[in-house]
Amino acid sequence: xxxxxxxxxxxxxxxxxxxxxxxxxxxxxxxxxxxxxxxxxxxxxxxxxxxxxxxxxxxxxxxxxxxxxxxxxxxxxxxxxxxxxxxxxxxxxxxxxxxxxxxxxxxxxxxxx
Amino acid sequence: xxxxxxxxxxxxxxxxxxxxxxxxxxxxxxxxxxxxxxxxxxxxxxxxxxxxxxxxxxxxxxxxxxxxxxxxxxxxxxxxxxxxxxxxxxxxxxxxxxxxxxxxxxxxxxxxxxxxxxxxxxxxxxxxxxxxxxxxxxxxxxxxxxxxxxxxxxxxxxxxxxxxxxxxxxxxxxxxxxxxxxxxxxxxxxxxxxxxxxxxxxxxxxxxxxxxxxxxxxxxxxxxxxxxxxxxxxxxxxxxxxxxxxxxxxxxxxxxxxxxxxxxxxxxxxxxxxxxxxxxxxxxxxxxxxxxxxxxxxxxxxxxxxxxxxxxxxxxxxxxxxxxxxxxxxxxxxxxxxxxxxxxxxxxxxxxxxxxxxxxxxxxxxxxxxx
Lengths: 113, 371
Known about the structure:
B: two-stranded antiparallel ribbon; about 20% strand
């Protein structure tokens, strides 16, 4: 993996949980496959299954999201996730951090033009 | 909902392939514990089922990668695989305890080596063991050799495999060998989410002690049984030699020798001696009666054995026996004879047969006139 790919992987890893939380806060509850599909619709390289699912499981372990099993017909049981209260608080603070970084980056970009 | 519900991808021709993927994934997630690993298996099955509906199974599997690497991603996110691992490595003391216990378990059948040496002919003949047949010895030796030889290999080999049958040593030490992603790791059970924790450890300790007790007990009982032998007497030729009788005993000596011979015959056929203790009448022993008629003529009216004492009545080896014979010889003359008899058995080389000789080594005579 070259430096750029590594950087993208690290960036994506840090941002995916923010994306997952925001998606679930806006459209939840959703199951894992639906979450991946939504994120992939936002952009081809935003997040794949290998990234989204592990992050989702960590968010669940940290009680930022909670899952509930659903059984519909003969289909395999699936787990729908939604953001918990702690997850919403985390989302607010993470969004603020993201906004701060985004603003800093934008200011620097403007200076270099 | 049962989280362990297995996934079914009905209708997909690659169902077996996908099932294999899910099985490998579940195994690779063992570090999470059986409940959560099964839950993730079910969830990923649902995931793949949704993807199958969109015709994207290959694409999704391609993104997920090998089940081991996908599992490694999950474990890494959970902080269980990323270096430095937040899962503490087991201490040297724990791993040493586990190894020692495993060595003990693997070598426990060596406790059966003692009875083995007693049933193998070359040893048994020297110890005088005569109670097992050749076939019995051969079978017993075979079973013991297989137990002693195969068990350590089987146990030690199985110890290196993760899975439900963990080594006793690791369970006792509170450790567990698990598959984490693509690698095998030894972790503390308490560090695993949903680990079985204390119960498994307590159960392992109890099981270990019970197993040791059973093996030790078997070794002791088998060894003791082989040494002592069953109650079946050996095939012995009996003879009686009366000596030192002296003139004081007179004709009664031969009669007493016959009594001793009868007792010996009773021993050889397994007849217990207690009936003699009850003062059984001489007439119940035809050979004695005949001997009495031939030897005593008119010199006595009746004679019987009133007491028999053995040093070790069950021992097949040397023992002393004391017989008290009481009789009335002239109708007005009581005579009490006490014989000390030494029994000696000479075994043949194979230890399966022998000749037992009873020697009257000492005689005491007590006389009293009837009032």
